[in-house]
């Protein structure tokens, strides 16, 4: 039996998440990944923005920093650059990271600073009661899209890849064994790593879109999230509505905080040789 | 710090003096975004910091720069950002986070005219009240001014010392006149400069409470990565650092953010006077304007007028008791500012009708001249 108590802050339970929410599943997956990699709790930092997923820091017994809406990656950049020894994990949501925090998201990726970004996508602003977000599918309902969403949605994994991230993956809260592997791989990667995690919200999204039953949402994930290599082999008509999961992008490129440390060493060497 | 220190005489621009002061204070992290008239601070530090093991980063926007500064500070780094009015507006969001989470850091605002993009290359003092009330919610603020390159150097060191002592962001309200003025200054003997470093816990991690009520009302925040795992949040929180909805604990949290500054105002408050002892008219001026005011006092004195200068170098908290004391001795105040009387309002409140309040204001981007001040004084004497 895996001992989760070693990693959680029991005093803060029960958690604030609704019944049927997937965010607790991600928390456990993350804990298993941290344990598997043997990352010391004292050297791990979680930085979160604002929203349902961003309340995760309260439950995890590491160094935790709950910031302002959309700004987690900016704060995390300061933590990592100031002390590159620390493992910095960012927890954020679709609204937090790609609407109000969109600028930090793309520039974190461009800079390729070593952060592991767990981007929970629940297709909605859950904490504030179900307003439309940049990932709400076109035509779906939200409290601020009562006639159906007129706007196209973001491909947020693709956005990270295009902006320069060195690792991009997509997982979900139904395919949990895969999620463990993806989070572990992202934590191991030196560079800006994003795991988009589909964690649909029964309360604020499902109820408005005929998916109020968490079991229906889980079945929806089961039926529609398909591993990328399997999806690639499917016929075109079978691919409609399916979402590719797994590691979508994984490249080696210079990491910012390490490059900065190299600069410091280079300047030191220049000074020594000048003396 | 002595006002005429002994040491190495140099010519320095105010903004460079600020950056050099930051390094002397122990600043090892800068995050910023380009903005006139403060960019020289970034351009100075980008060259210096990596040579002494420090870190510099130009962020994607002003908001991000403030966020990065807070993140860096939580690892123990003394962290700085620098901006001007429009950027200062953007920083208010995360400045509030630093206030709430009690994270020490220093924010420089080299003021230009506004609102909006206003006058990027011209001096003004229009952010004085923004520094006090720009971020939402009730809280105490420490903000300092400077009227020379020497003072920009010294006040930057002071700002870091206050930040580390009181675990709060400290704002440096400079202006374009001083920021872009190159003049003689003295780099003091290192040993003569007092540097304060934030406290670290002395208890074991099991006993540690980050926001525990201490004797001096200042929390002890462990640097991330040192074995004290705790939570930092912009939500109202209790002594554990975790969010709370308990009414009593919310009240304790909010009152503390004002009271911790108020309680230490005697140590934080600094000002300079010139010719004030027997004055009938007190000129109130700060920043670049105080230089014109000092000249005006000299000329008025030569003409036999009893005029003196009060120059607050700590502008927030406001020196209300000192103003009230002076109000009992002078006939009138002349508040000279490159805004429409942002601090004159505070003087008026503090003086409690014991002296007349007059104003000399200028908002056209030109500096206030000594003659403008002298003309006003002549009307009064």
Strand and helix layout:
The complex is a heterodimer of chains A (275) and B (381).
Chain A lengths: L22 H15 L6 E5 L14 E4 L5 H11 L4 E7 H7 L1 H10 L4 E6 L34 H8 L3 E6 L3 H13 L4 E6 L15 H11 E3 H6 L2 H4 L3 E8 L5 H19 L1
Parallel strand pairs in A: 1-2, 1-3, 3-4, 4-6, 5-6, 7-8
Antiparallel strand pairs in A: 5-8
Chain B lengths: L6 E7 H12 L1 E6 L6 H10 L6 E4 L3 H13 L3 E6 L1 H17 L3 E9 L5 E5 L4 H6 L8 E3 L4 H18 L2 E7 H4 L2 E7 L42 E3 L13 H16 L2 H4 L2 E4 L6 E4 L3 H15 L4 E6 L1 E3 L3 H8 L4 E6 L6 H8 L4 E6 L8 H11 L1
Parallel strand pairs in B: 2-3, 2-4, 4-5, 5-8, 7-8, 12-13, 12-15, 15-16
Antiparallel strand pairs in B: 1-9, 5-6, 7-14, 11-13
> What is the name of the CATH superfamily of chain A?
Thiamin diphosphate (ThDP)-binding fold, Pyr/PP domains
Give the helices and strands of chain B as they follow along the chain. EHEHEHEHEEHEHEHEEHHEEHEEHEHEH
CATH topology of chain A: Rossmann fold
Q: Largest chain interface and its two residue counts?
A: A-B, 41 and 44 residues
Sheet bearing the most strands of chain B, described? 8 strands, mixed
Q: What attributes characterize this protein structure?
A:
heterodimer, A: 275 residues, alpha/beta, Rossmann fold, 8-stranded mixed sheet, 10 helices, 8 strands, B: 381 residues, 2 domains, 5-stranded mixed sheet, 13 helices, 16 strands, 37% helix, globular
